[in-house]
Amino acid sequence: MSEIASRNIHHYLLEILEQHQARYRLVEHEASGKCEAVSEIRGTALGQGAKALVCKIKGNGVKMHVLAILAADQQADLSRLAQYFGGNKASLASPVEVDDLTACVFGAIPPFSFHPSLKLVADPLLFDRYEEIAFNAGLLEKSVILNTQDYLRIARPELVEFRREN
């Protein structure tokens, strides 16, 4: 069992937020993996939701996993993500890979990477529109609403534009 799989991601995340004196609120709600339903329950805008996609990038000698974060009201352009890292193909990781890399079920993945083989990137639009972002905190029934600047300071994602242009 990997070190990440042995951790309780929810408690680990809250410890990190406390250690870094982050401004956040914890919201408990009914389990739902759907961004629209959860944002309504949380009382936040859909665009504040931090959607986490575990992606696999391949081609041109590149083979890596990326945790790609974008606003829940946007669609990912995985080919843009692949190009950014020099690959020629990007796809969503399998449920087994997601579990290995995040120790979370799909829909509960927070926008933080706790695995050394999972590179964290985020689309900058998520941070431009709202003072807080919202996300499931390792469990489908618990969410965190976190100050945007605190998120950027603590998680330090690489900012990459990979949302689909309308």
TrEMBL record:
Entry-linked InterPro entries: PROXY (IPR044786), YbaK/aa-tRNA-synt-asso_dom_sf (IPR036754), YbaK/aa-tRNA-synth-assoc-dom (IPR007214)
Entries under Pfam families matching the protein: tRNA_edit
CDD domains reported in the protein's UniProt record: YeaK (cd04336)
Domain of life of the source: Bacteria
Residue intervals of the YbaK/aminoacyl-tRNA synthetase-associated domain: 29-153
Transmembrane segments: none
Protein name per UniProt: YbaK/prolyl-tRNA synthetase associated domain-containing protein
Lineage: Bacteria, Pseudomonadati, Pseudomonadota, Gammaproteobacteria, Enterobacterales
